[in-house]
């Protein structure tokens, strides 16, 4: 506690300037002589932070007098309770109207001392559990003036509590900040609760009220849950039964709520004030379908049922909501909305245009009209835009790309700032005002700045900071309003220099639909985003888009193609050569459109490996070098880095480039399947080798040599885009190192390699799978060569011999790898082949795999890996032949499925026709499996059953425009192969 002798000696030091402030402080017990009373420093400091310390102190003094002997309790609470201190002094220093309420009802200060502050999360979802019960209970059994009086008091008490939480952080900075959105939601919820209480009173006052059904529909800011402290509450009434009774009931609701809380305005009803106060649901429907004007649909955007008959209110919404989202199809819709905004602005007095927060230039209506127009235009096809609240709708427009993210954020911040100023101005006297103080009204500006939480900074006073921020936000709003409101999306589309796109709204959507775009509204959004502005970039896009739109229309998924093109363009927006390349190289445009309209895999990589894009202009460069040497540049580049993380990052980057190059050449039909598989396999080998070398370099002393043995498809150079790398690791101790120390060292190195390669990334995964090692996951990660030899000599099972058929050295110590391969040859190529029991065992294992591993619900006729005639069928058949005959047929000693099948044919083990059937099935399944990954951007073994994914897979397989024919061809090929497999593998 500060020494009282050192405290300020004048109330002016606490911001108190009125002559009677010392008298009020002494009366409260907060000042003695020329100094503050001991222990009252926190109160006086909080008082000094109040928007108007003198106003707050006058309120305290009035409250002291009103409480009389009960003042001591409040005085002590203010000393002890920081939350109460912040709330009460903030309210008293901000609002004369709420001060009057507390003085008239002095014990209501306890409502500001609750342990838990008002929380929008508690009130908004279930009104019946919060405000409504309090207000309904207050009027229970009451009618007439008694009901009005009771409702007014409870409504003001809750309003005071909301204001206290809204303002408390201004006085006590440690108090929780309640943002504008939560305050507006709470004010709306309180208004709804008041309507429900008023309806409860009205039902008792109006005879025979049970002979009708009445639903109250909130409109405007109340409907959108963004109400002000002081505002009319716009409503529409829907009735059933005796409409005369319903009309009297609605009138009574308006009267009770109007006298107690706020004016209820029903002017937004059909025909306005000249129309019936209550209409039936059919009456509303007929009006909106036949006679409603554009602005009435704009008003319905914010409608929601809030009181009365819930079922009737919901039926009203079911009728009018579809009409809202077709309003943009009305003739001159955009022009009508724009004209209405101009009329509203024209009604603002000339001298107040720049001070009118609501209706003036750069005011709240600028934001609201722009947002509503964009919602009504684009919300027809995007249900995520069907939001009533302005700030939430802004965020949705930004997320959807209809507004730039920066514009949406700036618009939102400016809107919240202006609404906060509006709230503070209205709180002052609880009067409906939207007028910003004049530049020369320093006192009003200072009060408003402090009430809004602004402080002096950079040599500027509080009022100067407020003026600067207000002008900045108003200018920002006006600029964004003109940008979004007067330059609609389709105007940008119409500027595309082609007769085909100089169309009206409906014509543009219809033409894109005719071209094959499933979501023409979304396509128009992308076009506008790409051609927005007057930059050189926008002009080039304007020239390119007519060509691209037609090219995308020839692909399996035009919408995906255009979306991907927009994403790539946005990602490469700062790449200076990107658009120039598209403009000058017609081949690049053709090939890029084909890739983007077919594949998700390609654009996902393209935004991170744009250096591959120029290769589309050069077929030789795109096809690339000998696939067997594809990894050499990668290994060479990575070897230059001494830092481990940088080395692995470089390896990932080069892998990304090669994946994109191979995928692009594959989809464009420029390379055969073998080149694809070998390229993918050798890229994997290079990454593994580079990572191993980098880890070994960083480890320092080398205790063992390590060799990497490729297994499975990696060993056979038959990897696909979604394949893991099946490997085993073998080590050999350095001189003087024990086997156990060598194995531990090697295991540490391998674990680090796996961790580095499997680290989270946006690239296709790099999973190193070691489950084919001896004892599977239960066995050691790395063994010495002697350990492998001992294991295979004593414990090897038949499945392990089969797995070793595809083993080959791929990285690390070449001599050690060669000796490992030499050691396992007798295991995988058993002398004298297999006996009948071993053959039966392999068939039993295969049958179990078919029964247990095929995913539930998968179609075995189109599952590329485990389905009938799929990859597993062909590979197991070739492997059985290898185990049976490789000891006497050297050509079978190969990890390659296709080469093994060719050797079996040459040896007379398989007929030419059977070999052709098996080869065709293996090739088709491998291509189809790759195509699924390229189309969907993720691994998958099941062919799509319908839709654009199936069309894209069929296109990638050479069956463009005939997905059904592709599926029939696949099944036919698989059936032929399965018949061969039944004879050769199962011996049936």
UniProtKB/TrEMBL annotation:
Signal peptide from the UniProt entry: none
Spans annotated as Adenylyl transferase: 497-988
Pfam families attached to this UniProt entry: GlnD_UR_UTase, GlnE
Cellular component GO terms held in the UniProt record: cytosol
Annotated region (Adenylyl removase), positions in chain: 1-489
InterPro entries: GlnE, GlnE_rpt_dom, NT_sf, PII_UdlTrfase/GS_AdlTrfase
Segments forming domain Glutamate-ammonia ligase adenylyltransferase repeated: 87-315, 590-821
Required cofactor(s): Mg(2+)
Catalytic activity entry: [glutamine synthetase]-L-tyrosine + ATP = [glutamine synthetase]-O(4)-(5'-adenylyl)-L-tyrosine + diphosphate; [glutamine synthetase]-O(4)-(5'-adenylyl)-L-tyrosine + phosphate = [glutamine synthetase]-L-tyrosine + ADP
Domain (PII-uridylyltransferase/Glutamine-synthetase adenylyltransferase): residue spans on this chain: 339-485, 845-984
Alphabetic keyword roster: ATP-binding, Ligase, Magnesium, Multifunctional enzyme, Nucleotide-binding, Nucleotidyltransferase, Transferase
Gene Ontology MF annotations: [glutamate-ammonia-ligase] adenylyltransferase activity; [glutamine synthetase]-adenylyl-L-tyrosine phosphorylase activity; ATP binding; ligase activity; magnesium ion binding
EC code: 2.7.7.89, 2.7.7.42
Biological process annotations from GO: regulation of glutamine family amino acid metabolic process
UniProt-listed SUPFAM superfamilies: Nucleotidyltransferase, Nucleotidyltransferase substrate binding subunit/domain
Entries under PANTHER family matching the protein: BIFUNCTIONAL GLUTAMINE SYNTHETASE ADENYLYLTRANSFERASE_ADENYLYL-REMOVING ENZYME, GLUTAMINE SYNTHETASE ADENYLYLTRANSFERASE
Family that this chain belongs to: Belongs to the GlnE family.
Function: Involved in the regulation of glutamine synthetase GlnA, a key enzyme in the process to assimilate ammonia. When cellular nitrogen levels are high, the C-terminal adenylyl transferase (AT) inactivates GlnA by covalent transfer of an adenylyl group from ATP to specific tyrosine residue of GlnA, thus reducing its activity. Conversely, when nitrogen levels are low, the N-terminal adenylyl removase (AR) activates GlnA by removing the adenylyl group by phosphorolysis, increasing its activity.
Protein name: Bifunctional glutamine synthetase adenylyltransferase/adenylyl-removing enzyme
Upper lineage: Bacteria, Bacillati, Actinomycetota, Actinomycetes, Pseudonocardiales
Gene this chain is encoded by: glnE
């Amino acid at each position: 506690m500060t020494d009282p002798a050192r405290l300020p000696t004048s109330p002016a030091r606490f911001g108190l300037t009125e002559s009677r402030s010392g008298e009020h402080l002494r009366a409260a017990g907060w000042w003695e002589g020329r100094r503050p009373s001991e222990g009252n420093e926190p109160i006086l400091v909080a008082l000094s932070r109040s928007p108007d310390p003198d106003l707050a102190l006058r309120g305290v003094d009035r409250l002291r007098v009103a409480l009389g002997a009960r003042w001591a309790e409040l005085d002590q609470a203010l000393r002890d309770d920081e939350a109460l201190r912040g709330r009460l002094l903030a309210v008293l220093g901000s609002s004369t109207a709420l001060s009057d309420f507390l003085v008239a009802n002095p014990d209501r200060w306890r409502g500001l001392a609750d342990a838990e502050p008002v929380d929008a999360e508690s009130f908004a979802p279930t009104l019946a559990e919060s405000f409504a019960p309090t207000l309904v209970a207050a009027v229970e059994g009451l009618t007439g003036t008694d009901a009005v009086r009771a409702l007014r008091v409870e409504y003001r008490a809750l309003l005071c509590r909301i204001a206290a939480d809204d303002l408390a952080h201004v006085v006590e900075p440690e108090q929780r900040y309640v943002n504008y959105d939560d305050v507006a939601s709470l004010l709306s919820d309180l208004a709804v609760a008041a309507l429900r209480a008023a309806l409860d009173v009205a039902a008792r006052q109006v005879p025979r009220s049970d002979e009708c059904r009445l639903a109250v529909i909130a409109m405007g800011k109340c409907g959108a849950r963004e109400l002000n402290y002081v505002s009319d509450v716009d409503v529409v009434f829907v009735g059933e039964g005796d409409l005369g009774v319903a009309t009297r009931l609605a009138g009574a609701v308006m009267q009770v709520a109007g006298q107690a809380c706020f004016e209820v305005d029903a002017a937004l009803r059909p025909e306005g004030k000249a129309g019936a106060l209550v209409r039936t649901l059919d009456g509303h429907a007929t009006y909106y379908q036949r006679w409603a004007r554009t602005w009435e649909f704009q008003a319905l955007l914010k409608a929601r049922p809030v009181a009365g008959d819930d079922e009737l209110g919901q039926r009203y919404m079911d009728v009018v909501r579809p009409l809202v989202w077709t309003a943009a199809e009305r003739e001159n819709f955009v022009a009508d909305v724009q004209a209405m905004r101009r009329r509203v602005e024209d009604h603002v007095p000339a001298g107040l245009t720049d001070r009118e927060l609501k209706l003036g230039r750069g005011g709240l209506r600028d934001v609201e009209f722009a947002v509503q127009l964009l919602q009504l235009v684009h919300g027809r096809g995007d249900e995520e835009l069907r939001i009533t609240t302005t700030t939430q709708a802004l965020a949705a427009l930004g997320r959807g790309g209809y507004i730039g993210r920066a514009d949406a954020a700036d618009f939102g911040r400016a809107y919240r700032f202006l609404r906060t100023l509006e709230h503070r101005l209205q709180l002052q006297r609880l009067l409906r005002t939207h007028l910003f103080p004049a530049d020369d009204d320093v006192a009003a500006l200072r009060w408003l700045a402090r009430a809004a939480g602004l402080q002096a900074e950079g040599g500027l006073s509080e009022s100067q900071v407020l003026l600067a921020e207000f002008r900045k936000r108003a200018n920002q709003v006006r600029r964004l309003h003109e940008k979004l409101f007067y330059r609609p999306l389709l105007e940008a589309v119409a500027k595309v220099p082609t007769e085909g796109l100089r169309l009206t709204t409906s014509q543009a959507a219809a033409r894109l639909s005719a071209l094959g775009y499933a979501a023409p509204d979304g396509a128009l959004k992308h076009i506008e985003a790409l051609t927005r502005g007057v930059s050189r970039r926008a002009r080039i896009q304007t020239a390119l888009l007519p060509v691209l739109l037609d090219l995308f229309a020839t692909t399996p998924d035009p919408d995906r193609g255009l979306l991907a093109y927009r994403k790539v363009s946005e990602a490469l927006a700062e790449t200076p050569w990107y658009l120039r390349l598209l403009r000058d190289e017609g081949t690049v445009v053709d090939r890029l459109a084909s890739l983007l309209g077919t594949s998700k895999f390609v654009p996902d990589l393209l935004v991170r490996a744009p250096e591959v894009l120029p290769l589309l202009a050069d077929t030789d460069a795109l096809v690339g070098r000998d696939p067997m040497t594809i990894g050499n540049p990668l290994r060479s580049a990575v070897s230059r880095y001494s830092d481990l993380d940088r080395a692995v990052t470089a390896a990932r980057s080069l892998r990304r480039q090669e994946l994109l190059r191979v995928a692009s050449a594959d989809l464009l039909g420029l390379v055969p399947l073998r080149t694809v598989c070998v390229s993918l396999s050798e890229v994997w080998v290079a990454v593994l080798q580079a990572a191993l070398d980098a880890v070994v370099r960083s480890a320092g002393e080398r205790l063992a040599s390590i060799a990497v043995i490729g297994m499975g498809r990696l060993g056979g150079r038959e990897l696909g885009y979604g394949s893991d790398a099946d490997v085993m690791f073998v080590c050999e101790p350095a001189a003087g190192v024990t086997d156990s120390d060598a194995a531990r060292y090697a295991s540490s190195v391998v674990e680090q390699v796996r961790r580095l390669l499997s680290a989270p990334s946006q690239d296709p995964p790099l999973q190193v799978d070691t489950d084919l090692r001896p004892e599977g996951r239960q066995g050691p990660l790395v063994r010495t060569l002697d350990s492998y030899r001992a294991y295979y000599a004593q414990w090897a099972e038949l499945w392990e011999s089969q797995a070793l058929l595809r083993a080959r050295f791929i990285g690390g110590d070449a001599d050690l790898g060669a000796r490992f391969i030499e050691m396992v040859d007798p295991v995988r190529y058993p002398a004298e082949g297999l006996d009948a029991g071993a053959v039966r065992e392999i068939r039993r294992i295969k049958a179990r795999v078919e029964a247990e591993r095929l995913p539930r619900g998968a179609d075995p006729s189109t599952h590329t890996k485990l389905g009938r005639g799929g990859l597993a069928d062909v590979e197991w058949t070739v492997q059985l032949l290898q185990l049976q005959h490789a000891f006497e047929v050297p050509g079978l000693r190969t990890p390659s499925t296709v080469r093994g099948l060719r050797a079996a044919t040459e040896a007379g083990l398989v007929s030419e026709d059977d070999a052709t059937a098996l080869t065709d099935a293996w090739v088709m399944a491998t291509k189809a499996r790759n195509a699924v990954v390229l189309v969907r951007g993720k691994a998958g073994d099941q062919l799509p059953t319908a839709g654009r994914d199936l069309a894209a897979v069929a296109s990638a397989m050479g069956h463009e425009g005939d997905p059904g024919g592709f599926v029939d061809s696949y099944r036919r090929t698989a059936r032929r192969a399965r018949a061969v497999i039944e004879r050769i593998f199962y011996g049936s």
